[in-house]
Amino acid sequence: MSKNNSQPLNLRGLLMRAAAASALVLGAVGLAAAPAHAAGATGYGNGTVIATAVPAPFVTGATGYGNGTVGVNQTINAFAICPSAQLSFVATYSNGVTVSAPSVGADINGNATIYWAPVNVGQITQAIIGSTCSPVYLGGANISQTPTTTTVSTPNNAQLGVATKITVTVQSNSPSAYSPTGQVVVKDVNGATLQTMGLTPGPGNGQGYAYYWWTPATSGTYTFQATYSGDANAAASVSPQDFINATPTGTPITLTNPSTMTIGIPQTLVATVYPTTVQGSAGFTLNGNSISASVPFVNGVATFQWTPTAAGAFTLGANYMTNQGGSGSTTNPITVVSGPASNDLITVTPAGGSTWSPNGTYVLGASSTTNFNVSTLSGAKVTLNDSGPCTSPGLSVVTPASTANCTLSFVSAGGNGYAPVTQTYNVTVGLG
């Protein structure tokens, strides 16, 4: 009998020692803990006694919280905090501002995943995961600005006199979802300000954008660069340069020619490519068939003299290929007639004077320069030649220092139904 009584006494001693050990463990854990499982035993009675082991209490905590960047999600894995309860996350900045995340439900073991994205730059002094159980304190963290990338979006080509949209986008660097605010300034290649604009959120995630309409007045290559000044939460950035080629037709190549030509009369076809620094060549076509060999560009211009051989309506074309592999083309309609209506007529008027008559004789002072205003019925350009001793830079004549006689020849290639013409004028150089 005494032997059987000794077993319960030994069991009670074992349980008391286990409970004491559990108390020591609880006292050593500095985090909030869920209630410990009760200690006990099963199978007491006649036969063998088995004592159950006392499980350790739940140790609570979280991972994934710490220093971060505005707009970048942090994934906080909470464990053993408060079984089947709603968990809330609140972060407090040093200036007193609080930021929270949507509440989430913990599973039966007190585990949950909390997603939050810092929305302000600054120092977080404390973050707490709260529930109906004891709160869990996560400590402080530093939140920094998100870097940004600024871009200017423009079409490659624009037409003179037509409004063209210039768009600036400021993007928070991935994975930030913060939409930058503030201003962007668009400047030209010389650093002159073209436009200052405020950003609107969007259109994409983590973006701010702005745009304006720009109208080119003259042909050429225009440069655009945008500077974002930053805001409290997003860092400043500068875009790469973007370029627009402005042309009369809005295409990178233009073809200049008379709209009406005459059989047997040569005409000069001019292809101009933009930007004029492009290296490459152009070819000319009639109704899609080649009429020229490859003509290299010189300062963006390629010329070819072509003589129509048949009357009718045709399509002239010019296509180009750059040394870097770029290409493009354009076309113009033309009409070719069988014979000219008449010779072209050149009107020659010295600046500040009266119009000269062809084959007339006129007196100019020695060592003088006379500029001429000229026009043609055909609309063709006029060139000026002289037989000396005068010189003729452009559409001007420069006389020598002594008396002399000069012959000036004004030349039009004709076109638009007019035949080419050369008109001559005699100049007597006088002293005094």
What's the name of the CATH homologous superfamily of the largest domain?
A: Immunoglobulins
CATH structural class of the largest domain? Mainly Beta
Q: Uncertain spans, ≥5 residues at pLDDT below 50?
A: 1-59
Number of domains: 5
Distance between the termini: 159 Å
Mean pLDDT: 86
Q: Provide the gyration radius in Å.
A: 44 Å
Instruction: Estimate percent helicity.
Output: under 10%
Per the CATH scheme, the topology name of the largest domain is: Immunoglobulin-like
Could you name the key traits of this structure?
432 residues, mainly beta, Immunoglobulin-like, six-stranded mixed β-sheet, 38 strands, elongated
Descriptive overview:
By secondary structure, the protein is mainly β. It has one helix and 38 strands. The protein has one helix at 2-28; strands spanning 41-42, 50-51, 61-63, 68-69, 74-79, 86-93, 98-105, 112-116, 122-130, 136-144, 148-153, 157-159, 164-172, 183-187, 193-198, 200-201, 207-214, 220-228, 237-238, 242-247, 253-256, 260-262, 267-273, 280-286, 289-290, 295-296, 301-306, 312-322, 327-337, 342-343, 346-350, 361-365, 369-376, 382-386, 396-398, 404-412, 418-419, 421-430. The strands form ten sheets. Strands 12, 14, 15, 18, 19 and 20 form a six-stranded mixed sheet that branches. Strands 22, 24, 25, 26, 28 and 29 form a six-stranded mixed sheet that branches. A hairpin with a 4-residue loop joins strand 6 and strand 7 (98-105). It is elongated and about 115 Å long. The N and C termini lie far apart (159 Å).
